[in-house]
Amino acid sequence: MVAPLPLRRREPPRSVNRRELVPSPVLAMLIFVITELMFFAGFISAFTIMRGSAVIWPPPGQPRLPVGETAFNSALLLASGAILFAGSRRFRDRPAQHRRALLAAIVLGGAFVALQGREWLQLLAEGLTMHSSALGSFFYLIVGVHALHAVVALGVLLLLWLRMGRETVPRPTLAAAEIFWYFVVGVWPVLYWRVYLS
Amino acid sequence: MSAVSKAIWIRRVVIALAVVVATPLDAAACPSCLAAEDSDVQMAFLSATVFLSLLPLGLLGGLFLWLRRRSRQLDAEEAAGVIRLPTAPPRTNRAA
User: Fold this and answer.
1) Considering only CA atoms, which of A194, A156, A166, A182 is closest in space to residue A67?
2) pLDDT score at A1
3) Dihedral, CA atoms, A98, A103, A106, A111, nearest 10 degrees?
4) Which of A32, A168, B9, B55 has minimal Cβ neighbours within 10 Å of its Cβ?
5) How far off is chain B from A5, nearest CA to CA, in Å?
6) What CA–CA distance (Å, rounded) separates A136 from B61?
7) CA A109 → CA A38, A76, A113, A154, B51, distances in Å?
8) CB contact at 8 A, A135 and A58
9) Among chain B residues, CA nearest to A162
């Protein structure tokens, strides 16, 4: 008969004085944004190759993309990001003003999405669809995925704006949501340059 | 695996390899082969390859450098006697 092993008491974890280099929500969001950037990089690369392979561009019978209108929309989106960035830095300890800047960013971002939707309706009416040409397929795929990101990010910012009105919101949570919005804003000029101006 | 089935398996692999070696030009599935005659497409493939190769390195490298800078910044703050307590986020951003 084997004698039972004596039970070893597990020592309680030593309290290690660990410092937090980056808040977990912020680090998680940064890693997520890196993966999203690769996602969009794949789209842009595929579009670049398709564009390089095309003999005639834009494809015959397809409408021109509204470069001027979208430039205005882009300005709204960039203003939204700039206001949020400035508000976040300037009103770090003044939550009422910070909340106002957040609302301004949401309104401008919402205007961008709404105007892009209007532009889509016009293009659909002019015959640019997912199946009409490679331009239509890539346009709706790339711009649509970006619009989806914008809608999700705006939803998150709106929820945080509502939450800030009735309770305190941890700063790392707010910072993570803002990083996602900066990503949506920052990736757009690249998409605009490649899809609209190329 | 029996000796017979093993021999059949090896024979199939050898035949497949022979086909791959003998008919590369007939199976021009590689995008670079398809694009070999058009310099624009070649350039597009080249730029996309360079872009997709360097982007992850740049992103992860940037993240690493930022974390290292932040670590050094905290070291400097500790050396200067600044106390920054970890974990609990400050709850000061409630709107008035």
Assistant:
1) A194
2) 53
3) -140
4) B9
5) 39
6) 35
7) 23, 7, 6, 7, 29
8) yes
9) B95
Nearest C-alpha of chain B: how many angstroms from A72?
Answer: 28
Taking the C-alpha atoms of residue A192 and residue B44, their distance in angstroms, rounded to an integer, is 18
Phi first, then psi, for residue A101 (nearest 5°) are -65, -40
Contacts of A188 (CB under 8 A, 6+ apart): A74, A77, A78, A146
Report the alpha-carbon distance of residue B94 to residue A160 in Å, rounded.
11
Which two three-digit tokens encode residue A34? Answer: 């890196």
- Taken as a whole, chain A contains a residue count of 198
Say whether the peptide bond before residue A6 is cis (omega within 30 degrees of 0): no
What does the block give as tokens for A33?
């944004």
- Minimal CA–CA distance to B47: which of A56, A52, A33? A52
Look up the ipTM and state it. 0.72
Say yes or no: A37 contacts chain B, CB-CB below 8 A: yes
A77-130 residue pLDDT tens: 999 999 999 999 888 878 888 999 999 999 999 999 999 999 999 999 999 999
Taking Cα atoms as reference points, which of B57, B55, B61 lies closest to residue A44?
A: B55
